[in-house]
């Protein structure tokens, strides 16, 4: 989950020049180890302007977490700032852009002494505000950025650079950079779409950058396209890229008004879904639970079990509690067990948590995440002998869906568990069953089944952790 910038990677002068700067948390949702940590670095702010940098960073943060899907999942993020002072204010304006007539917008050529050498006109584009004027020079500055992060916040998930300039500009790459003005937040969100969430531009990015991705494809079959679950909803379709040269006519995008194309637009439904999927892959919604094995001494009835969840807003998390494989409670954070609930011998309590947000088209969505906590209770005639607990994360993929011939099941977990899959008819009749080892993909032939809706039930041991529709056409 975290970028571990280890000191051993910083050699020679980089290690010798490591500096510790003042840092501050401006959004604290919980433990850094259980959140996505965004780190904002100041650029072009003199020491006397660092208080303004904090204000600008808070304004950026507020703007970001006021827009979907970050608004709904704000509790999954922490935001930190590192106050890196520059000798002079602003950013370079070399006046060397080739895509405008210089001097553009009455801006005079200037060069200022800043820590990360933020520069307009990078790679010949006036609005490309980047650390350095070109890729070669940027290698040295990127090492400097890494050095600052390693010395000040090595466990970041994504670092951003906020520039003390009111002239529109920004860039992507490993460390997105943006001006502090009106559209700066949207510039950063667009660039975060690339660097953190693996989204593509929805204007044609060029042949070198064109590739199959969450929001870019060459597939046009409506039953196979990546965003089939969103087709004809919220203006999602299959839109051909347009341009005069290159291979863009071979590529398609899901929307015509998405921030990944136009900076003044929101994220489209397909991109929101991709962002949430990445959030779920990085952070478990189970923040903590009790009791834990190491804290259980002389347990007596009733025994209380509690989940502390990282809840979206509005809360869309669903939980299913089972006791000895039988349903016990749904959608609650706390349960209590009394003596008559248990059998003599080993008892198992499991709670499975998943996100049922409508921003994910769950029923037809290929991949979904389930997190569980399992308590094993050794109950004797003389009372509780022992309680052990274990937390697990599961990523299950079922594709293609709908399908006519075969369906693939893929399973990943942080445990050595085996996933059992039962395909059953709507009437409850068992059709097929299979077991899938961790990091394994199994292909199932369903060509002999009648067209219709089936259920895929997923089990760890004897506990059902999820159930999804499977459509045969």
UniProtKB/TrEMBL annotation:
Q: Which Pfam families match?
A: Peptidase_M64, Por_Secre_tail
The UniProt transmembrane annotation reads: none
The alphabetical list of record keywords is: Signal
Origin: domain of life = Bacteria
Every copy of the Secretion system C-terminal sorting domain together lies at 398-471
**Coiled-coil residue spans:** none
Q: Which InterPro entries match?
A: MetalloPept_cat_dom_sf, Peptidase_M64_IgA, Secre_tail
Task: Enumerate the NCBIfam families for this protein.
Answer: Por_Secre_tail
Name-wise, this protein is M64 family metallopeptidase
Q: Which organism is this protein's natural source?
A: Mariniflexile aquimaris
């Amino acid at each position: 989950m975290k970028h571990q910038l280890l000191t051993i990677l910083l050699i020679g002068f980089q290690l010798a020049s490591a500096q510790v700067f003042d840092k501050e948390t401006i959004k604290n949702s919980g433990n850094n180890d259980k959140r996505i940590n965004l780190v904002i670095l100041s650029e072009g702010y003199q020491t006397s302007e660092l208080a303004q940098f904090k204000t600008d960073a808070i304004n950026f943060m507020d703007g970001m977490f006021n827009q979907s899907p970050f608004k709904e999942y704000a509790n999954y993020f922490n935001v930190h700032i590192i106050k890196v002072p520059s000798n002079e204010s602003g950013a370079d304006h070399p006046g060397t852009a080739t895509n405008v007539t210089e001097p553009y917008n009455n801006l005079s050529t200037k060069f200022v002494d800043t820590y990360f050498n933020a520069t307009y006109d990078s790679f010949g584009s006036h609005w490309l505000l980047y650390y350095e004027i070109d890729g070669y020079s940027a290698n040295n500055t990127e090492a400097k950025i890494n050095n600052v992060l390693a010395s000040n916040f090595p466990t970041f998930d994504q670092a951003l650079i906020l520039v003390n300039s009111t002239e529109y500009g920004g860039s992507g790459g490993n460390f997105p950079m943006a001006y502090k003005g009106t559209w700066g937040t949207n510039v950063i969100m667009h660039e975060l779409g690339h660097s953190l969430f693996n989204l593509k531009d929805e204007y044609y990015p060029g042949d070198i950058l064109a590739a199959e991705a969450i929001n870019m494809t060459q597939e046009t079959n409506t039953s196979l396209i990546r965003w089939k679950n969103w087709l004809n909803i919220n203006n999602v379709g299959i839109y051909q890229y347009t341009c005069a040269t290159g291979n863009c006519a071979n590529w398609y995008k899901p929307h015509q008004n998405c921030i990944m194309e136009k900076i003044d637009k929101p994220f489209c439904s397909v991109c929101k879904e991709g962002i949430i999927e990445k959030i779920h892959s990085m952070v478990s919604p189970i923040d903590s639970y009790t009791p834990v094995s190491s804290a259980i001494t002389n347990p007596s009835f009733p025994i209380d079990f509690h989940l502390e969840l990282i809840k979206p807003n509005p809360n869309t998390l669903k939980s299913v509690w089972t006791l000895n494989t039988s349903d016990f409670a749904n959608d609650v954070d706390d349960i209590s067990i009394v003596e008559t609930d248990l059998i003599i011998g080993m008892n198992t309590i499991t709670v499975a948590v998943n996100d049922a947000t409508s921003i994910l088209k769950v029923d037809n969505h290929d991949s979904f995440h389930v997190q569980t906590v399992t308590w094993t209770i050794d109950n004797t005639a003389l009372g509780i002998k022992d309680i052990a607990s274990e937390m697990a994360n599961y990523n299950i993929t079922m594709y293609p869906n709908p399908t006519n011939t075969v369906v693939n099941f893929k399973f990943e977990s942080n445990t050595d568990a085996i996933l059992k899959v039962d395909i059953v008819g709507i009437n409850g009749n068992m059709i097929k069953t299979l077991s899938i080892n961790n990091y394994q993909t199994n292909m199932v032939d369903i060509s002999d089944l009648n067209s219709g809706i089936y259920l895929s039930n997923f089990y760890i041991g004897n506990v059902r952790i999820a159930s999804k529709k499977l459509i045969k056409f």
